[in-house]
């Protein structure tokens, strides 16, 4: 009984234990379930506010002026968007086979796949199979940024995946996924991956290449075909097997694709590394454009913009190759390069065609010397700040300036400003054209002083130079600026001369288009008329001379071109003393009818060791300019500069800028171009005909007997050396009429005199007639004696014996022949002799001596000279006629006259004395 009882009790205990176990399990499930529900509630409660609008970072693309891609701009991700219908089916099938074969069947979370994955992982005791769908992967990679709590993130993925499926279609989700996924080597998105690995567009991918790309995404580093080609090959084949398994392809197609060797893109240089100087400036300009539109500039790297630029790839490539050749630059010191920058633009529309900001790019979006640098422009500013304003004010290329030492007020510390020319020469009176041609400094200063510093400053500002108020001083004419200018600034200004006085704002962007094809911006550059067409052409015509025969001959293109050199001096510091012919900056700015270009050269920092050694703007910068322009103009028809109406050419006197006088020497008669209303009407008065003593070269005194006449220059403003340069004279000073009077000859001066001692004179002293070369007759030698006498003692009478007279012509010049008879003096044999007649007039109305002679032709000037008692007393005057009345005569005087005939070049043709 007891056993039965005991057995019953034991059975009861067993029953209670079973029930208790069930109870515990139920309790545990309840507890776990409650905790799970609480956990789930916490996960959902902690989910961030997701923006289901997909906004991935999209790379921007930069296009040249032929709409060809030249650069890619990306931020943190390198992604090029692809539309779903652009993606090949082979790519889609490869991803479905490997990532989510039931993608089009589930609602974002694949319960069946989750169950299968749990069983597989439990069986293998490790994580062997995942259950994330394509939608969950998209949610995780594109919308969830919490990477700390794995379980919480997985649940959030599932929840967000379900939400995404409610917002987007399956194709849209698949497309977002394929555009977002990372493929390694900086490539995000399927299109970027195709270009990165195979240099192909999507529609060019083979089945094998599609499978390779689908296989990479699981582990981009492990399956990198560049780093682990064997692993990549195995992974590709696995994808092909899975595609066949799920009937996306046949077994035969899979086997055929496995035999394909993948050919990788070995030129993996990112597009963003192409044309970096130009691209950097495009980014800068695009940033300004977007910010003006209220768009953050960071969107350049995130929004998939298409930026269409003005760059000419051919010209840019050539310019970059020029800058890569060290032969185009002077050798640096201490491994520091002599730097340079260049800009080339089309002044007709303001489009920048090429731009290089330095010889080496060390920092992206760092200093771009072509656009950001500020340096002194030297003489390249003269057309902009001095001569351009002068032309606009009515002056002309014929306006004459005196290139002579001068002190200007307003120097540093109240001192005088004493500029000099680069070669330390002083050329004297010269035209604006000549001053520009040889880059002479003093005329530029005088031109700016003439029109006013304010006018020059305003003119340069209109041409786009970033001047400061402190630049309003005379040194502006030579480029002495507070901060300076960039090559782009100068290119814009010179482009206005080339574009007939119209300044068009330089720009590098034609338009900006968003990822949906909407035009956000289209260039409409500012245009302004900054000078007259006539001013622009006159300046161009002078700058053509610079290249043809001036300081810029190295830039000669063999076709129409105009330009200006510029060089800046080393700082006026003790450490730079005694470094003549060495410089800080060298420039060349110029243009053709089609394009404008500017080149700068110099060290970034000038020191006693780092400066340009005998490098001028007309040297290496001009050569670089020529190379750039030749490529830009290659195969283009030759164009001429457009000449506006109302311009005429007129002969002028180069020393006065006025019409030539009869005395203007031929070498100073030049043709110059004028605006019709500005053609000079006055005759040049800088030339005079005057006598000098042949022995001393000074003005003759009354005692000088050997006197010659010449044509001399007479400055409008007499030159007096400034205090800072005593004894320094311009080169044409020797052409002026002497100011000193001869002091060699006086009343006591003795000369050799010949007397005729023929007895027929009965001892009366008379001067002998001696034949000159070409003459016969004269006093016989046996009756001629020689004496030394002072001028005041020389008799005035000559031998009058008939058998002693002279016959024939003589070669020689000047007055004072020992004869009262008619003696023709043919100064240049073969010319027409001058016949002179003398008649005493006293008819009541007129009183004097009438001189008459024959005409020797047109353009002949006749100078009338008179002696009294053998001494030159006065130059009576000159005329182009054939007669002259000398009214200033006195009784009982012996007068001798000489007529000197000369052409308008002041070449003496013949003379007649009587």
For this structure, the CATH topology of the largest domain is Beta-lactamase
Count of domain modules? 6
| Oligomer class | single chain
Beta-strand residue fraction: 15-25%
Could you name the ranges where pLDDT drops below 50 across 5 or more consecutive residues?
1-43, 809-831, 904-909
Q: What is the β-strand count?
A: 33
Overall SS class:
alpha+beta
Considering DSSP H and I runs of 4 or more, what fraction of the residues is helical? 25-40%
Which CATH architecture of the largest domain? 3-Layer(aba) Sandwich
CATH class of the largest domain, anyone? Alpha Beta
What do these coordinates show?
The protein is an alpha+beta fold. 29% of the residues lie in helices and 20% in strands. The strands form eleven sheets. Strands 6, 7, 14, 15, 16 and 17 form a six-stranded antiparallel beta sheet that branches. The longest helix has 45 residues, at 2-46. It is rod-shaped and about 160 Å long.
Give a short summary of the structure.
The chain is built from 19 helices and 33 strands.
Task: Outline the fold blueprint.
Layout: H1 2-46, E1 60-63, E2 69-73, H2 89-99, H3 111-124, H4 134-143, H5 150-167, H6 170-180, E3 182-184, E4 187-188, H7 190-198, H8 207-216, H9 229-245, H10 251-258, H11 276-292, E5 306-309, H12 313-324, E6 339-346, E7 351-356, H13 382-392, E8 400-403, E9 428-431, H14 432-437, H15 441-451, H16 453-462, H17 487-498, E10 502-504, E11 509-513, E12 519-522, E13 527-529, H18 533-549, E14 562-569, E15 582-591, E16 596-602, E17 612-613, H19 620-633, E18 647-653, E19 669-675, E20 687-693, E21 707-713, E22 750-756, E23 775-777, E24 784-790, E25 806-808, E26 823-825, E27 836-842, E28 847-853, E29 860-868, E30 871-879, E31 883-886, E32 895-903, E33 908-913
Parallel strand pairs: 1-5
Antiparallel strand pairs: 1-2, 3-4, 5-11, 6-7, 6-16, 8-9, 10-13, 11-12, 14-15, 15-16, 15-17, 18-19, 20-21, 22-24, 23-25, 26-33, 27-28, 28-31, 29-30, 29-32, 32-33
Helix pairs in contact: 2-8, 2-9, 4-5, 4-6, 8-9, 9-10, 12-19, 13-15, 13-16, 13-18, 15-16
């Amino acid at each position: 009984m007891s056993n039965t009882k005991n057995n019953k009790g034991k059975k009861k205990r067993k029953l209670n234990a079973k029930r208790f176990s069930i109870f515990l399990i139920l309790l545990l499930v309840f507890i776990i379930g409650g905790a799970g529900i609480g956990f789930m509630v916490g996960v959902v409660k902690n989910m961030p506010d997701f923006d289901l609008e997909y906004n991935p970072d999209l790379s921007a693309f930069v296009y040249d002026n032929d709409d060809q891609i030249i650069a890619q701009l990306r931020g943190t991700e390198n992604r090029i968007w692809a539309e779903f219908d652009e993606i090949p089916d082979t790519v889609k099938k490869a991803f479905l086979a490997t990532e989510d074969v039931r993608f089009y069947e589930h609602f974002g979370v694949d319960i069946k796949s989750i169950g299968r994955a749990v069983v597989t992982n439990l069986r293998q005791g490790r994580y062997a199979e995942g259950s994330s769908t394509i939608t969950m992967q998209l949610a995780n990679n594109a919308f969830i940024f919490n990477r700390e709590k794995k379980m919480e993130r997985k649940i959030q993925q599932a929840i967000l995946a379900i939400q995404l499926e409610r917002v987007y279609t399956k194709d849209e989700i698949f497309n977002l996924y394929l555009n977002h996924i990372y493929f390694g080597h900086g490539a995000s998105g399927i299109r970027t991956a195709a270009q990165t690995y195979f240099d192909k567009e999507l529609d060019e991918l083979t089945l094998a290449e599609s499978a390779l790309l689908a296989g990479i995404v699981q582990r981009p580093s492990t399956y990198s075909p560049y780093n682990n080609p064997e692993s990549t090959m195995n992974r590709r084949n696995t994808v092909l097997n899975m595609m066949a398994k799920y009937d996306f392809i046949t077994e035969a197609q899979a086997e055929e694709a496995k035999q394909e060797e993948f050919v990788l893109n070995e030129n993996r240089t990112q597009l963003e590394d192409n044309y970096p100087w130009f691209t950097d400036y495009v980014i800068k300009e695009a940033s300004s454009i977007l910010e003006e539109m209220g768009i953050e500039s960071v969107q350049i790297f995130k929004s998939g913009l298409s930026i269409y630029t003005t760059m000419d790839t051919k010209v840019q490539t050539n310019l970059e190759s020029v800058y890569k050749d060290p032969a185009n630059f002077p050798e640096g010191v201490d491994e520091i390069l002599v730097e340079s920058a260049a800009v080339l633009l089309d002044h007709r529309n303001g489009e920048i065609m090429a731009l290089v900001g330095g010889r080496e790019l060390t920092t992206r979006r760092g200093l771009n010397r072509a656009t950001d640098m500020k340096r002194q422009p030297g003489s390249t500013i003269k057309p902009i700040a001095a001569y351009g304003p002068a032309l606009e004010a009515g002056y002309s290329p014929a306006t004459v300036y005196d290139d002579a030492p001068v002190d200007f007020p307003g120097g540093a510390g109240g001192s005088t400003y004493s500029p000099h020319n680069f070669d330390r020469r002083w050329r004297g009176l010269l035209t604006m054209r000549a001053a520009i041609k040889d880059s002479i400094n003093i005329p530029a200063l005088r031109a700016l002083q003439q029109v006013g510093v304010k006018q020059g400053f305003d003119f340069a500002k209109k041409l786009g130079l970033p001047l400061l108020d402190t630049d309003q001083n005379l040194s502006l004419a030579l480029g002495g600026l507070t901060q300076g200018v960039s090559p782009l600034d100068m290119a814009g200004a010179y482009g206005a001369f080339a574009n007939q006085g119209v300044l068009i704002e330089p720009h590098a962007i034609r338009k900006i288009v968003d990822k949906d094809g909407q035009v956000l911006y289209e260039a409409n550059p500012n245009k302004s008329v900054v000078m007259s067409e006539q001013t622009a052409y006159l300046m161009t015509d002078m700058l053509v001379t610079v290249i043809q025969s001036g300081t810029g001959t190295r830039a000669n293109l063999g076709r129409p071109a105009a330009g200006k050199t510029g060089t800046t001096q080393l700082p006026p510091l003790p450490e730079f003393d005694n470094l003549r012919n060495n410089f800080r900056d060298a420039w060349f700015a110029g243009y053709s009818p089609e394009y404008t270009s500017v080149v700068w050269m110099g060290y970034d920092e000038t020191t006693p060791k780092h400066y340009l050694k005998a490098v001028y703007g007309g040297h290496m910068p001009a050569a670089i300019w020529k190379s750039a322009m030749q490529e830009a103009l290659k195969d283009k028809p030759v164009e001429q500069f457009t000449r506006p109406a109302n311009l005429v050419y007129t002969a002028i006197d180069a020393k006065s800028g006025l019409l030539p006088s009869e005395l203007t020497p031929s070498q100073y008669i030049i043709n110059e171009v004028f605006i019709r209303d500005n053609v000079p009407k006055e005759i040049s008065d800088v030339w005079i005909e005057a006598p000098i003593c042949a022995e001393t070269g000074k003005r003759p005194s009354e005692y000088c007997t050997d006197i010659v006449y010449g044509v001399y220059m007479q400055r409008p403003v007499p030159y007096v050396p400034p205090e800072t340069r005593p004894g320094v004279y311009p080169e044409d000073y020797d052409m002026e009429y002497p100011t000193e009077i001869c002091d060699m000859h006086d009343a006591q001066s003795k000369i050799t005199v010949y007397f005729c001692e023929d007895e027929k004179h009965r001892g009366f002293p008379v001067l002998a007639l001696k034949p000159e070369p070409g003459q016969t007759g004269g006093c016989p030698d046996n009756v001629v004696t020689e004496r030394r006498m002072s001028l005041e003692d020389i008799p005035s009478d000559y031998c009058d014996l008939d058998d002693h007279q002279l016959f024939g012509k003589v070669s020689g010049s000047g007055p004072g022949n020992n004869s009262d008879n008619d003696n023709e003096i043919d100064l240049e044999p073969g010319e027409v002799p001058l016949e002179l007649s003398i008649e005493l007039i006293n008819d009541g109305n007129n009183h004097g001596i009438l001189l008459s002679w024959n005409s020797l032709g047109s353009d002949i000037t006749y100078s009338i000279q008179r002696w009294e008692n053998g001494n030159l007393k006065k130059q009576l005057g000159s005329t182009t006629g054939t007669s002259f009345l000398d009214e200033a005569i006195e009784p009982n005087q012996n007068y001798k006259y000489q007529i000197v005939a000369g052409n308008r070049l002041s070449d003496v043709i013949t003379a007649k004395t009587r």
